[in-house]
Amino acid sequence: MKWLKRIAKYALYLLLALVVLTVAPTLFYRKGLNGNALHYLYKKGVYHVHSVFSDGTGEVKEIAEAAGTLGLDFVLLTDHGEPNRASVAATAWHDRVLIVGGSEFSLNCGHLAALGFKTPGYLFPPEPQEAIDEVTADNGVTFIAHPFDKRIPFSDWEVENFTGIEIMSSYSASQELDALRLARFLCQYLVNPNYALLNTFSFPDRELKKWAELYATGLYYGIYALDAHAKLPVTRSWEFRFPSYRAMFRILTVYVKLAGPLPEGADPAAQAIVSALKRGNFFNVIEAIAPANGFAAEFIGEDGGKTEMGGRSAANRGVIRVQTPFIFETRVVVKKDGQDYRTIAPNRSRSLDIAISEPGVYVLEIYAPENHFAGLPWILANPFFIGGGQPARVKNEPGRPAVKKWLVEGNDLFSVEKNGASDGRISETHSPSGEGTIVFDFSLARDGEKKDFWSCLAKRQDFDFTGYTGLCFEARSSQELRYWLEIRTRTGERETWYSHSFLAGGEFKTFFIPFARLHLLYGPKKKPALDKICALFFSINNGLAYPGTSGRLEIKNIGLY
Question: What is the largest CA-CA distance in the chain?
């Protein structure tokens, strides 16, 4: 038994040594000092924060107080929902901290954070391009959330016209913690939260490469994301109630440059913040390395014109003027079109003029080489799009396809299917030329406590759509609402549902929905078997509408193209 005691003793010594080695670096870590005042046009805040409105643990007041103690100017809420109406409505001043309400949409290809939109009378769709387009039409901003996350990556890179992507995400960093790294994190967090949280990050190589691919095609911006919940899930039923909001708010920040003084009213102030994000006139900071008060950058063209971060200059040559008024040494990396262009190291100058002699997209990365986390991009500025040839971010509109076959004439092909408490009625109208229109009047209600509710036009009939690209139809609605186009396929006794939403308004609009863009609500992605279609639906349900919604949908000229 003595040898067992001896082994146990040595094991204990080894464990204590590991704990000491794990904790020791945290005892000596200190963030860099910065005594510079923040210019009044710059506001500092945090992006991607969850509250009790979704899966966060804090009330809005608690979140604002945490931000206020750190001198932050704003907090960008992104609670889960399509949209999260309570979160959007939370835009307000709390003393000197502005809460800007937004949502994080769960799409069929990942997550999308959105801010600055008006809350519609329906739910945003699961299709990414449609959700992006609706927020953009409201002058809002959309950022692809944690694009390469281990659990919830973003998968539809055919989308366009969004604002940007998250470059660093504490959520993604936490997903990489295995049992050993989690134990190390817990020990370090108890001693120095800044060090512990920074130690979970790795260099965002994939995100920076994807961002470079994007800004080669248009005005796309990068942002640092906290994804703060004030909790650390370990399993589905067990979680730690930390890191706290205050601890998280010390880690990653966003500095926006306003076009003028911040308005006093909460809504105009929120619009000013969102507008700066939309222009790309902001930079990102790992605040736990050091505050970046005093940093600034602009492009001065050979014609004397000045361009802010995120902006486009018609000039092909000039200088990027960078303000680095810090008491510690920095390393300034300039990238052109995603590749290293110039590095200034060591940099001890308070101001730099970096000569630019050819068109391109230029991005500044600033590092703090004397810091323990010298390998992480301390400051990441948004691009300068230099040269008149740089592309604008414009949505490509496809040409109008030719209809190959008319599929439906009149309402004889359809019947109504609904849950018990909802209603649905079909009628038909004809124009003077004899053109028939299907008229569907509906109202939606829950059956008791059941979540699901629906009302739809349904035709259960075998179809073979082989050789066609998609379905087309004309539709209008008594009010602006989203509806589903749905087909079902059958293999044996099993049906598989494929859907795509469409937004109908007061005037008839022609929709072309390719079969390739239909998606499964659940399960792995796969294409529908076009020779095994057993049903066609036009529907509205709890996936797109609120209970109590009622209206009229009119459809005509259903065909294949």
Answer: 103
List of residues 6+ apart from 165 with CB closer than 8 A: 143, 144, 147, 154, 207, 210, 211, 214, 220, 222, 223
Quote the pLDDT of residue 436: 87
Phi, psi of 58 (to 5 degrees): -110, 145
φ, ψ of residue 6 in degrees (nearest 5)? -65, -45
Q: Output phi, psi for 19, to 5 deg.
A: -65, -45
**In a 10 Å sphere around its CB, with 0-12 CB exposed, 13-18 middle and 19+ buried, how is residue 417 labelled?**
middle
CA–CA separation, 245 vs 77, rounded Å? 12
CA 460 to CA 90: how far, in whole Å? 45
pLDDT reported for residue 412: 63
Angle made by CA atoms 310, 311, 315, in degrees to the nearest 5: 140
What distance in Å separates the CA atoms of residue 500 and residue 482, rounded to the nearest whole number?
Answer: 10
Helices and strands: H and E segment counts in the chain: 10, 35
For the chain, residues with pLDDT lower than 70 are 1-21, 234-237, 388-398, 408-412, 522-524
- Chain center to CA of 345: 34
pTM of the predicted structure, to 2 decimals = 0.92
- Alpha helices (runs of H) in 29-59, residue ranges in sequence order: none
Pairing of β 296-301 and β 306-308: antiparallel
Q: Residue 509 CB: number of other CB atoms within 10 A?
A: 14
**Contact between 547 and 455 (Cβ < 8 Å):** no
The strand pair at 360-367 and 550-560 is best described as unpaired
Q: What is the pLDDT of residue 239?
A: 74
- Per DSSP, the three-state class of 109 is coil
Spatial contact of 11 and 267, defined as CB atoms under 8 Å apart: no
* Cα–Cα distance measured from residue 365 to residue 208, given in angstroms and rounded to the nearest whole number: 11
Cβ atoms < 10 Å from Cβ of 337: 14
Q: Which of 274, 355, 338, 278 is nearest to 311 (CA)?
A: 278
**Measured CA angle at 63 (ends 62, 68), to 5 deg:** 95
* Structural domains of the chain in order of their starting residue, each with its CATH number: 44-288 (3.20.20.140), 293-387 (2.60.40), 405-560 (2.60.120.430)
The tokens for 290 are 């050091």
Distances (CA, A) of 255 to 34, 177, 294, 419, 464: 15, 29, 11, 50, 55
Give dist(CA 321, CA 108) in Å, integer: 42
